[in-house]
Amino acid sequence: MKKIAILTRDGEFYGQTRKPWVSADIKKIEKLIREGGYEPLILTYHQVFNNDLDLTDIPIFYTFSQKENLRHYIGDIIHYLYMKDYHLIPELPLLLCHEDKGYQEILKKKREIKSLNSLYFSSSSDISKYDITYPGVLKTIDGSNGNGVFLVKSQAQLLNILKKWEKISFLERLDLLRRAHLRVKKFKEYPDFNSRIDALQFEKHIKPERSFILQPFIPNLKYDYRVLVLYDQLWVTRRWNRDNDFRASGAKKFDCNFTADPKLLDFAMTIFKKFDTPSLSIDIAFDGKDYHLIEFQAQHFGVNVIVKNKGFYYSDNKKWLFKEVKPDVEEAIAHCVVAYLDKNWEGGVRVP
After folding, report:
1. Is 190 within a domain?
2. Are residues 6 and 92 in the same domain?
3. Could you give the C-alpha distances from 123 to 128, 141, 210, 224, in angstroms and in order?
4. Mean pLDDT (the chain, rounded)
5. What does the H/E/C string look like for 244-267?
6. Is there a smaller number of Cβ atoms within 10 Å at the N or the C end of the chain?
7. CATH number for the domain harbouring residue 66
8. Which one-letter DSSP state was computed for residue 242?
9. Contact at 8 Å (CB) between 221 and 241?
């Protein structure tokens, strides 16, 4: 039987289901994948690295995490496996996109994905070099459920938000005054040293800054779409905006009682096929004419689009059909993994 390695933190946790800290039933996923014709090897990240396990010709399926230290740890181990030329599911760039909307913009551009013309900045000092159209949507590169997302109607409003992010504390201000006016220092190795100049340079160094995205604002949106592509299954929900707000993310107003536009499904599949992954959660907006990719995530996505739905869409001879099923998160996960392997993996190598 063909093997697949499944990486978890402790051999049991596979996130996420109801919440980021709630695991799917890894034993059930293991059983379903075995029934699909593959032998799952449940391994931990530390086991793979510290024991230097040989996973040559074995596809490696892994998940992400929102826990900060674990997110970095997973990134390190997956980078190591990438350097050993092992086959990662999903591909490494999709891991780099997790909790990083900036890298999502980079990958959109690299994969030539038609989307909103977003700008990526590291601080308020960057924006003076661009002619920015308002209103726009300001996003921190991390955050979820609508956190860190703001509608900005002018450059003055944008700068006011960024100024709050970059505020230096009162005690730090006092220290800067001390450095500039009360500190007398000379450095033999640096004869040009000047306390006031050094204080100004130090102020720039300690100023808190947050990288951010600026996206064009699509007016009159009452909702967006969350499409979860599980290889050949498309689970779709409409997410209504918060009350008196332009944001749908975090509102928890899910609507599955509608017939999805075939063009929406086509658009979602076009996005999905740009990546090497068995699954992709895609947020999509419609401006009345065109669909636009907002954000995407390959793993550790919310599963409400599954558990609140009555079924999924699938393509049959280029026609979209709907299949009613009883929602089951573990069955959906196992299905997309097996379907991906059946289509893309043969004899220990990735099928071109």
Report:
1. yes
2. yes
3. 10, 12, 6, 29
4. 91
5. CCCCCCCCCCEECCCCCCHHHHHH
6. C
7. 3.40.50
8. P
9. yes
Rounded Cα distance between 39 and 338, Å, is: 11
Q: Tell which of 181, 207, 233 closes a domain.
A: 207
Determine the Cα–Cα distance for residues 19 and 271; give it in Å rounded to an integer.
26
For residue 122, tell me if it sits in a domain. Answer: no
pLDDT at residue 72 greater than cutoff 80 = yes
pLDDT of the residue at 67:
86
Q: Tokens 């699954």, residue?
A: 279
Would you say residue 250 has pLDDT above 70?
no
* CB burial readout 126-156, b (16+ within 10 A) else e: bbeeeeeeeebbbbbbbebebebbbebeeee
pLDDT in tens, 156-194: 999 999 999 999 999 999 999 999 998 888 898 999 999
Instruction: Let me know if residue 193 belongs to a domain.
Output: yes
- Vertex 39, ends 37 and 40: CA angle to 5°? 125
What is d(CA 327, CA 329) in angstroms, rounded to the nearest whole number? Answer: 7
Residue 186 lies in a domain: yes
Contact in structure between 341 and 59 (CB atoms under 8 Å): yes
Q: DSSP of 14-57, one letter per residue? A: ---SSSTT----HHHHHHHHHHTTEEEEEEEHHHHHHTT---TT
Cα torsion angle, 297, 302, 304, 306, sign: positive
Q: How confident is the model at residue 9 (pLDDT cuts 50, 70, 90)?
A: confident
| Domain that residue 193 falls in | 168-207
